[in-house]
């Protein structure tokens, strides 16, 4: 088994969200219409909560799903859809997210609208042969474990990297990338990787156009399982 085993990938979180130039009305009938539209797509949420500026729907079976609508300010609102410890595949989550977005659009957005930004996130766990932080610190980064004595005598249980990459000029569509690579504290031989793609450029959504959660989710998953894993495995490939 290699030090970092890509064959052991376990998906523990999927998420996609949009910030929209639209006032979100705190309207009881609109919320009920939204829930009815979701139920027509076989999306039932037994738990809901309403705050002064948000509305959250939660489902635990057959796979965890949370939908949150929120007012972020004057004429700015958001919709976020996520799944913690999903039992479904990314493809099934994307289909459910698309159904949620379609219901949201029909109930809250009339005609064309402006999406101010989009984002998608995946979190994965991978198995390592030894302690995940030992692999990351010594094998990938080539650091000496004795250096930790500068921090005192306490043992280091884990740690990791956070990388933030801003949009660049040759992006077809401006894209910010954030990656976290950490040892998983509850299981020392697991590596936790979070990958987030953020599209910050506003875009106009025409009246007959749909949101694109599947495209965003596939983009972040592809980046996570190829480029991020290649970055980690450089210590083993010798590149």
Q: How are the SSEs placed, and which strands pair?
A:
Elements: E1 4-20, H1 28-40, E2 47-50, E3 54-59, E4 65-73, E5 76-84, H2 90-108, E6 113-128, H3 132-140, E7 160-165, E8 176-183, E9 190-199, E10 203-205, H4 213-237
Antiparallel strand pairs: 1-5, 1-6, 2-3, 3-4, 4-5, 6-9, 6-10, 7-8, 8-9
Helix pairs in contact: 1-2, 2-4
Keywords:
single chain, 239 residues, alpha+beta, 4 helices
What does this structure look like?
This protein is of the alpha+beta class. The chain has one domain. Helices cover 28% and strands 37% of the residues. The chain is built from 4 helices and 10 strands; from the N terminus they run βαββββαβαββββα. It has helices at residues 28-40, 90-108, 132-140, 213-237; strands at residues 4-20, 47-50, 54-59, 65-73, 76-84, 113-128, 160-165, 176-183, 190-199, 203-205. Strands 1, 2, 3, 4, 5, 6, 7, 8, 9 and 10 form a 10-stranded antiparallel beta sheet that branches. Strand 4 and strand 5 form a beta hairpin. Helix 2 runs antiparallel to helix 4 (213-237). The protein is elongated and about 60 Å long. The two termini are 19 Å apart. The relative contact order is 0.19.
């Amino acid at each position: 088994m290699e030090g970092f085993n890509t064959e052991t990938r376990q998906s523990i979180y999927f998420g996609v969200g949009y910030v929209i130039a639209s006032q979100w009305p705190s309207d009881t009938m609109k919320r009920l219409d939204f829930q009815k539209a979701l139920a027509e797509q076989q999306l039932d949420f037994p738990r809901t909560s309403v705050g002064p500026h948000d509305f959250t729907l939660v489902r635990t079976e057959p796979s965890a799903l949370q939908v949150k609508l929120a007012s972020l300010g004057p004429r700015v609102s958001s919709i976020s859809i996520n799944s913690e410890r999903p039992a479904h595949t990314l493809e099934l989550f994307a289909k459910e997210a698309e159904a949620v977005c379609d219901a949201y659009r029909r109930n809250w957005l009339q005609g064309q609208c402006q999406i101010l930004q989009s984002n998608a996130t995946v979190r994965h766990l991978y198995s390592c042969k030894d302690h995940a932080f030992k692999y990351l610190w010594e094998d990938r980064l080539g650091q000496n474990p004795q250096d930790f004595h500068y921090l005192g005598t306490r043992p280091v249980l884990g740690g990791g990297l956070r990388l933030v990459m801003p949009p660049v000029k040759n992006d077809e569509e401006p894209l910010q990338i954030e990656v976290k690579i950490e040892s998983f504290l509850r299981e020392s031989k697991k590596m936790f990787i979070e990958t987030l793609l953020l599209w910050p450029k506003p875009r106009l959504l025409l009246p007959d156009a749909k949101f694109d959660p599947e495209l965003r989710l596939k983009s972040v998953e592809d980046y996570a399982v190829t480029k991020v894993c290649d970055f980690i495995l450089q210590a083993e490939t010798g590149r």
